[in-house]
Specification:
This protein is α/β, with parallel strands linked by helices. 41% of the residues lie in helices and 22% in strands. It has seven helices and eight strands.
Length: 207
């Protein structure tokens, strides 16, 4: 069976990061999603196009997604035939993240609705259209999923990711002292060991 792995990067990342994951998926073609947009109603079309291109050539598609790439993936591919997903520091509840950022910036919903967009002191732009889209398009993710989460993730709380894992029957691994962005040698070693174990466990599941 021909399988493909679609890697979906996070904010500031790129499709070239897919190279890191090739050694883990022997016999599979690993492709990075080269999406350019930053809004979910646009990334949905880009990621869906990448997925459909792969399903035309492969029998099965596996997802590896990082940070907001996990949210974009779920928004684009929920209900699609995905064999398995591996999420690294996923934005598991986008509405919660947006409302948290509003709280950090001391912005109320009425203010955001009136102004439509507000630039925060920490560099993020709050968008009323974005918040409305997230609320109007809830996520229902039913793909077998393994999650890697960092103890010191500053964007998603442990409670939020645990709730998501419980709701979707996903496995959850937590790196003590880790950060949202896995990038140091220690963090990447932890990530690599997690992915190796998750892949081995997934093979056991199908036996």
């Amino acid at each position: 069976m021909k399988k493909a792995v679609l890697y979906v990067h996070g904010k500031g990342g790129n499709a070239g990061e897919a190279e890191h994951y090739k050694p883990f998926f022997a016999g599979c073609d690993v492709v990075g999603a080269d999406y350019q947009s930053e809004f979910p109603w646009e990334t949905k079309n880009e990621i869906l196009s990448e997925y459909e291109s792969l399903t035309n050539k492969y029998n099965s598609v596996i997802i590896v997604a990082n940070s907001i790439g996990a949210y974009f993936t779920m928004n684009a591919l929920q209900g699609k035939a995905v064999e398995r997903a591996f999420f690294i520091s996923p934005i598991a509840d986008m509405e919660r993240l947006i409302t948290d950022m509003m709280s950090w910036a001391n912005v109320t919903e009425s203010e955001l609705k009136e102004k439509q967009e507000i630039v925060t002191p920490f560099g993020e732009t709050l968008s009323w259209k974005y918040l409305c889209y997230v609320r109007d398009n809830p996520i229902e993710w039913k793909v077998p999923t393994d999650i890697l989460y960092a103890e010191n993730d500053n964007l998603t709380s442990r409670e939020t990711v645990s709730d998501f894992a419980n709701r979707t029957n996903a496995s959850l691994t937590v790196m003590s002292g880790g950060e949202h962005w896995f990038h140091t040698k220690e963090q990447m070693n932890f990530l690599d060991k997690w992915l190796t174990k998750a892949l081995n466990d997934s093979l056991e599941d199908v036996k």
